[in-house]
Amino acid sequence: MTAGETRLTTGDAVVPAESDETAVEAREAAIEEHRYGQPEVLEGPFGTRQLLRLDEALRTADKATGLTFSVYVGELEEPVRGHAERMHLQLPNAASAVLIAVSPNQRVLEVVTGGDARRRVPDRDAKLAALSMVAAFGGGDLAGGIISGLDQIATRAGRS
């Protein structure tokens, strides 16, 4: 993964963000290829359109703030906060990165911010976004909750 590239991770599937509109069809085809070529991806929580919406939300948040946003959806090892923090440290430019880690089966959500990102997204703002996401998750809208949380965090972070 190159610097400035966002990603959505669902278990083992990684969907890189593309920069132009014509790439939407290519991404959709690649996602479909992964779905039909690798049965384990079929078990993922998102459909193709949801993945595309999440990809767009990640790209928009990155552009709007200059921070790097990433989303992980899958199982988290105990202690979950520690696992989320270790994943965050693996991101490029972790100091200005925001990771949203969601484990639907464990009913856990963690928002991890690097030092630079934390100055722009205080814990209070991250907690408010988390509460909003949890409310959407409770209503059965995993993708919508993540998209809403990304938007809220990006709006609070503003542009550097």
Helix and strand succession?
EEHHHEHEEHHH
Taken as a percent bin, the fraction of beta residues is 15-25%
Q: Terminal Cα separation, in Å?
A: 23 Å
CATH class, please? Answer: Alpha Beta
Uncertain residue ranges: 1-7, 12-23, 37-42
- The CATH topology is Diaminopimelate Epimerase, Chain A, domain 1
Radius of gyration computed on alpha carbons:
15 Å
The coarse silhouette is globular
Number of strands: 5
User: What characterizes the major β-sheet?
Assistant: 5 strands, mixed
Question: Any descriptors?
Answer:
Diaminopimelate Epimerase, Chain A, domain 1, 160 residues, alpha/beta, disordered N terminus, 5 strands, single chain, 7 helices
Provide a descriptive summary of the structure in words.
It is built from seven helices and five strands, in the order ββαααβαββααα. It is of the alpha/beta class and 160 residues long. It has a five-stranded mixed sheet, sandwiched between helices. The protein has one domain: Diaminopimelate Epimerase, Chain A, domain 1 (Roll), CATH 3.10.310. InterPro entries: DUF5130. Pfam families: DUF5130.
Q: TL;DR?
A:
The chain has helices spanning 23-37, 39-42, 48-65, 80-89, 115-120, 123-138, 142-157; strands spanning 7-10, 13-16, 68-73, 97-103, 108-113.
